Amino acid sequence: MEIEKQIKELNNIISRQSSTTSGKDDINGLAIFEHFIPYELLSRIFCYLNSNELVVCHLVCKRWNELIKEYVWRKKAELISGQTFPFDEKINWVSYYLLCAKNAFNRNLLLSDKVVARDDNECDHGAFETIEFDKNENPPPINVMPFPEDLVVNDQIRCSISSPLSFSGAKKSFRIHLLKEGLTEKILNNIQPIIKVSVWFCCKLDGKEADFSCYTRLLGRPYPEDPDASAFVMRSAQFNKRLNNVDQKGKWFQIITFSSALLNSKTMAKD
């Protein structure tokens, strides 16, 4: 069904271009070294070019320009994100270009240098120590179980650990500005892509029990109605995972707040 849909979209582009070309122009942009390249294959090749190379291809000929702007950028964004973006005339190719060029998908936004740490009376970021390990240091020398494999990013593991001197109820909170991460207003409002937030947590091997809480919300939305739903009690040093899908129903939500609390000195977390 998806293949038929893609072919239909390509045929629509071809029919529009055919009405403005004739003679030798009919295969202009489709013949490379005297070999005819079908539209379907050409568009697939374009999808695997990097963003800068694809922008240069706009300049080759009118046929390539229209094909890339009307079809390829959206399909490239779908391949990168793993999500389906229905055709929307209100969204031009620049929005999809930004998604691809800024690598807005499948990465840890909390590690972005654009993330803002909240600084208020409720949060005490100084109560935590952020540390990095080489993946070969697994398990690391901090008295915890080995890290799950999917926590390794660029051969590094980054985590936060509560200070032995931290007080009960220490909390950290971050705000993620989605527009600064490559998403655009039109993408957020019209397509509303899926945004997932996950956190791994565990207590130390010498800890009999540890408490941890976390929640994620769109700025402007209420806090969780049931605070207990985001609170966890750990009685072993095994890593646990909490995964949330950010509910983005409605428009104009562009900032995510991520908060977590390490409620005693024997807890650590990997965002």
Describe the protein.
The chain has 271 residues and is of the alpha+beta class. The protein is built from six helices and twelve strands. The chain has two domains: 2-101, Monooxygenase, CATH 1.20.1280; 109-270, Sandwich (Jelly Rolls). It starts with a helix and ends with a strand. Residues 31-76 form the F-box domain.
Mind sketching the topology for me?
Layout: H1 2-18, E1 31-32, E2 35-36, H2 39-47, H3 51-57, H4 62-81, H5 93-101, E3 116-117, E4 128-134, E5 156-162, E6 171-177, H6 185-191, E7 195-203, E8 210-218, E9 231-234, E10 240-246, E11 255-262, E12 267-270
Helix/strand structural class = alpha+beta
The ordered H/E elements are HEEHHHHEEEEHEEEEEE
Taking the sheet with the most strands, its summary is: 5 strands, antiparallel
Helix content: 25-40%
Number of helices: 6
What is the typical, i.e. mean, pLDDT? 67
Strand content: 25-35%
Tell me the total number of β-strands.
Answer: 12
Q: Low-confidence spans: pLDDT under 50, at least 5 residues? A: 20-24, 121-127, 265-271
Strand ordering within the main sheet: 3-6-11-8-9
- Terminus-to-terminus distance: 38 Å
Radius of gyration: 24 Å
Q: Within the CATH hierarchy, at the fold level, what is the topology of the largest domain?
A: Jelly Rolls
Number of self-contained structural domains: 2
CATH class designation of the largest domain: Mainly Beta
CATH superfamily of the largest domain: Galactose-binding domain-like
Describe the global form: elongated
